[in-house]
Amino acid sequence: MPTKKEDMYGDHISHQFNDDLSQLKSDFLDMGGLVEQQTIDAVNALIDGDSDAADEIRARDKVVDRMEMTLDEEATRLIARRQPAARDLRFVISVIKMVSDLERVGDEAKKIAKFALTLAEEGQAPRGYVEVRHIGNHVTTMLHDALDAFSRLDAHQALKIMREDKRVDEEYQAATRTLLTFMMEDTRNISRCMSVLWVLRALERVGDHACNIAENVIYMVEGEDVRHTPVEEAEKVVGR
């Protein structure tokens, strides 16, 4: 049985309106699943030195771009035809914003694939892969959980993702310090280590975009904008 909040966007007299909202939600989750897999595959391509996989990831980015354009058109058409108000308007506007975040996650996956190709040609960097794997697992889990929170309209799970973003920032800073120290001790590997640093930066940005999606879920459910808000304040909104 769906909860009240899971069903809050599917209780209109117009069956077509319900179908339109359901389709928008489904298409968004399809795009989310694709960019999540893109990020996982990009990290694996880097660690495995798999240039063929990296090439495929870069080619699939065009699919992500097309999905972004389709979802934008779908949302714009829904607004024009249905003129949604209140909670429905929050839903559609939030989807438009979150689609932009997903497209940027796809861009970050494409960047990682680019550096995977570079390192496959130059030879693997001597350090940084453990950190890439760890942070990569962390941010892809955040992204997965953010999409799940959207699917179930779960503000409490979204709040957990906001808390995780701080941990990712700390992990990224620690990994960067470790790699910079190694580079200063052995300057022969600066070029390859810099590639790993850029990969770590891309992964940290994936975490930021997952957090943005979580913030929009809270806005959809609670009706309050928690962007640029300390987690403690967001906790008050969700905990009411």
UniProtKB/TrEMBL annotation:
Q: Has UniProt tagged this entry with the keyword Transferase?
A: no
Q: Which GO terms describe its cellular component?
A: cytoplasm
State its location(s): Cytoplasm
What's the domain of life for this entry? Answer: Bacteria
Keywords for this entry? Cytoplasm, Phosphate transport, Transport
Any one GO BP annotation for this protein: negative regulation of phosphate metabolic process
Keyword Cytoplasm listed? The answer is yes
State the Pfam families in the record.
Answer: PhoU
Domain PhoU as annotated: residue spans:
29-115, 132-217
Give the signal peptide range.
Answer: none
What family does this chain come from, according to its entry?
Answer: Belongs to the PhoU family.
Q: Which PANTHER family match?
A: PHOSPHATE-SPECIFIC TRANSPORT SYSTEM ACCESSORY PROTEIN PHOU
Task: Quote the subunit structure annotation.
Answer: Homodimer.
Instruction: Give the function comment from the record.
Output: Plays a role in the regulation of phosphate uptake.
Q: What is the protein name given in its UniProt record? A: Phosphate-specific transport system accessory protein PhoU
> Source species, please?
Marinobacter daqiaonensis
Its taxonomic placement starts with: Bacteria, Pseudomonadati, Pseudomonadota, Gammaproteobacteria, Pseudomonadales
